[in-house]
Amino acid sequence: MALGLFLAARLTGVAVLTATAWAYGKNPLWLLGRSWDSGWYVGIAAHGYGRIEHYPPKIASDYAFFPLYPGLVRAVTEVTPLSGGAAGLVVSWAAAGAAACGLYAVGRLLYGRGVAVALVLLWGVLPHSVLLSLAYTEPVLTALAAWSLYAVLTGRWVWAGVLASLSGLARPNGLAVAAAVLVAAAYEVVRRRGRNVSHRLWTGAALAPLGWCGYVLWVGVRTGDPLGGYFAVQRRWGSRFDFGVGALHQARHLVLNGGRFVFPMAMVAVAVSIVLFALLVVDRAPLVLVVYSGVLLVIALGGAGYFECKPRFLLPAFPLLLPPARALVRTARARPWHATVVVGALAGLSFVYGAFLVVVNQTPL
């Protein structure tokens, strides 16, 4: 049921986007498979790394993009007649389905079937959930993260480490999965006072950061600066970690002067995420979920540049939706009509805003 509702939501979103694209005289398949970062990933899948574009004062290198997603796209193009963009959509849509199943597994393990269904549904109708239908990496990261966290919650440490390592090859903020696994493992060791700790826990903890560290080191070696090369690439893109100073300046500018619609929406999404994280902590969610969500928040809020992209960076932070999912289930039991109106309103916003972001908006996603 949960997967069916998720697919229905996303297919409806794609239908609205397609109709909007046709109304504007644009090709919906091109928009879905080649928009913004998708073009970079498809290029890496086809030609490997080495592309550099100059957008003064920025110097854009494809080393900024982690290799797992383009590797999967390349694999699909090798075994099917699909082109890069279409193969990217196959990978993203399959990953989105796997992510929805992972969210359901986590939600059901912790709070039961009803909350699990609500969690998947809410994730599928977020205002920025259109990104789950594009040739983007967020579905891949979320799928790996959800199943890695589920593995931690069920004591499958080696699987947790393997999936965390793959998460680190999917996106820069895949580091959050490794951090969550490592903190959860450390907590388990302390709780047991170092006694009767399985070798599987140590193995999983050792595996967790390998993907992220391996790619960062590889880029560093390729650029001649083993420890700092990757971060230099990001700085040339205009992206750096400044502990939130840039985000605060951007938020202040928006409050005082306004801005294009996507920027206030991004600010609202960030503010809501902070509130939801506080609720997650108050609800005493499992440590691994709190750490994962917290690190994603720190990475998103602490990074300077591309303020409009912050909701995308937070899309994999699905544990933040556990408190509203539980509230939605309580509302559905007491006042079913109210819950229906809430979900319908969120879905409508998601479909319309998603079409606007991809078809009309000229700001990078």
UniProtKB/TrEMBL annotation:
The protein's annotated pathway: Glycolipid biosynthesis; glycosylphosphatidylinositol-anchor biosynthesis
Bilayer topology annotation: Multi-pass membrane protein
One Gene Ontology molecular-function label: GPI mannosyltransferase activity
Record keywords, A-Z: Endoplasmic reticulum, Glycosyltransferase, GPI-anchor biosynthesis, Membrane, Transferase, Transmembrane, Transmembrane helix
Superkingdom, taxonomy of origin: Bacteria
GO BP: any one term: GPI anchor biosynthetic process
Subcellular location: Endoplasmic reticulum membrane
Bilayer-spanning residue ranges: 86-107, 114-137, 157-189, 201-221, 261-282, 289-307, 341-360
GO CC, one annotated term: membrane
Record-given protein name: Glycosyltransferase RgtA/B/C/D-like domain-containing protein
Protein source organism: Streptomyces spongiae
